[in-house]
Protein 1
Amino acid sequence: MPEIEDHLDHGLSVLFIGFNPSLRSGETGHHYANPRNNFWRILEESGLTDRRYAPTEDGDLLKLGFGFTNIVARPTRGVEDIAREEYREGRTILRGKLAEYLPKVACYVGKGVYTEFTGRKQANWGFQPESAVDGVIDFVAPSSSGLVRMPMRDIVAIYKELRFYLEDELDD
C-alpha cells in the first residue's frame, strides 16, 4: 500500500503527528480517514476549525496553518504492525522535517507517538517542558482513535488548550 503524502509547509502553526496511517487512510490517500477516527470531530469541537472537515480536505488545512505527518509513513492495521527499524528510521526522518519546517507547535496525536519519538518514558497531556527540536513547541494530545477510552469532552478540553495558545499567539 502506498505511503500517505505529508502536508508540510514553512510557517505552520501546528504540525499534527501520528504513529502511521490506517489502512483506510492508505486506501484513500488522506490523513485520519478511518470513519471510527474522531480527529476531524475533535478539531471542530475544540474550535481549532470552524467546521468539521472531511479527510479528503486534509490538504486544505495548510491554509489554516495545519500540517500532517507521521513517524512511520506506511499504512498498517495497527501500531503493533510497525517494526522497530521503521521507528528508528521514522524518528530520524521526523526530526529532519521538524528542523526544516519549524512549525510553531508539534502536536503529537497520542502519548505513545510522543514517547516513541522522544524516547521519554512518560508525558503529561498538553505542552511539554522541553522541546524535542529547538524552535518547536511540543504538545501532547490524546489519540483520536475510536478505541480510546477517554471521554470525548476530556479529549476536546485538551485540544482546546492548543486552540487557546494559538489564539493568544494571534493576539500578540
Protein 2
Amino acid sequence: METRTIAGELTIYTAATEKQSLQEALDAADELEINLSQVNEMDSAGLQVLIVLKQEAARRKKKLHYSMHSKAVLEILEMSNMTTSFGDQIVLT
C-alpha cells in the first residue's frame, strides 16, 4: 500500500493541483492511503477532491483510505454531514 500526505491547504486555491497529484498516485497503486494530518485548512473544493477520488477508486475497484484526519478536515466533514460517508476510521483526539 502506498501512502501520500497532503500538507497545508486543501482549498479552492490548491484543489486542482492536489487532485492531479493524488490521481497520479491512484493510477500507480492498487491500494492508496492518504494521510490528512497535515491539512491545516480545507473548504468545499477540497472536500470535492476527496469525494471524487473516493468515487474514482471505487469505479476502478481500487482501495483508497483517508487517515489521520486533521481538525480542519474533521470540521468540514462534520459541517457537511459527511463524517461517515467515506467509510474510513476517524479517531477523535
Protein 3
Amino acid sequence: MAKTLSDIKQALDLHLGQRLTLKANGGRRKTVERSGVLTETYPSVFIVELDQEENSLERVSYSYADVLTETVELKFF
C-alpha cells in the first residue's frame, strides 16, 4: 500500500464508507478473513464495521502499523 504511517492514513481517509475485505493474522498460524465497511479513521487506528451475518463482532480496529507490517491486508471493492 504505502510506505509511511501518515501515507497509509491518508490513503484510508480516501476510502471512508467503502466496502472492504480484510485478512488479519489470528495468531497460531491462523488467518482471519472478514468483510465490512471502513467507518472511521483516527490518528493511530482505523475502525471497520463488520457484516453481521458472517461475524459475531460488530466492530474491529487496527493500527496503521498493522497495515505497514502486512499483519493486516485490505482489499477495497
